[in-house]
Amino acid sequence: MTYENQDDQVIQVPLRDGSVAEMRPINPEDKGRLVEGLSHMSPQSRMARFGSGISALSASELRYLTDVNQVSHVAWGATIDDDPAGIGRYIVDGAADAEIAITVVDRFQRRGLGRAIFEALAASARASGIETFHFVIEPWNRPVLHMLPGIDFVDDDGNGMLTGRIAMADIPRGTMEAEFVELLDRSRQRMSGPV
């Protein structure tokens, strides 16, 4: 499977600052991009995403993060000017519920990329019958809660984290929803091979 810069396999998403992100479903060939993206994240960003300031991922972690089935574990990646810029994923953990996580490399933050990745994940989830996203974040990472109104969150006294939940019905459809769903469907078809 190769996805590199093929027009029918990426979606170009304009961002607030005028830059353009290329987004597509993650595949096993993205291990190098994930390693590169991690190397450009600050310790605080790594802490927000992984719960520790890790500086490297093991081979099994890389496999877990890139060798996804795009059904019960859906992941989207974004590049800007061919540099790894962000990644988001959801993992289904109930009949219609999924845990979501989004990471944007520090220098690409505050451009609307996190929101674009969220919209790709929401479009994918909605098309797959997911009804609710939930998440767990560090208490100091409250700015992520401003991504969308309507997110309910609580302080989890047990582990000091914030937990949140948002119904898909409360997430407005993005302007590129159909394109995200179509590209994900093509990715799934490629993974399953000829019919």
Please explain how this structure is put together.
By secondary structure, this protein is of the alpha+beta class. The protein has a single domain, classed as Gcn5-related N-acetyltransferase (GNAT) (Aminopeptidase, 3-Layer(aba) Sandwich), CATH 3.40.630.30. Helix content is 29%, strand content 28%. The protein has an 8-stranded mixed β-sheet, sandwiched between helices. Helix 4 packs across helix 5. The chain is globular, with a radius of gyration of 16 Å.
What is the element layout, followed by pairings?
Elements: E1 11-14, E2 20-25, H1 31-39, H2 43-50, H3 59-66, E3 73-80, E4 83-92, E5 97-104, H4 113-127, E6 132-137, E7 152-156, E8 161-167, H5 177-192
Parallel strand pairs: 5-6
Antiparallel strand pairs: 1-2, 2-3, 3-4, 4-5, 6-8, 7-8
Helix pairs in contact: 4-5
The strand order across the widest sheet is 1-2-3-4-5-6-8-7
Estimate the helix proportion, in percent.
Answer: 25-40%
Number of discrete domains: 1
Rg over CA atoms, rounded to whole Å, is 16 Å
Structural class: alpha+beta
Q: Please, what is the CATH homologous superfamily?
A: Gcn5-related N-acetyltransferase (GNAT)
CATH topology: Aminopeptidase
Shape: globular
The top level CATH class name: Alpha Beta
Mean pLDDT: 86
Helices and strands, in N-to-C order?
EEHHHEEEHEEEH
CATH architecture: 3-Layer(aba) Sandwich
Count of DSSP H/I helices: 5
In what range is the share of β-strand residues?
A: 25-35%
Distance between the termini: 16 Å
Number of E strands: 8
Given as residue ranges, the uncertain stretches (5+ residues, pLDDT < 50) are 1-6
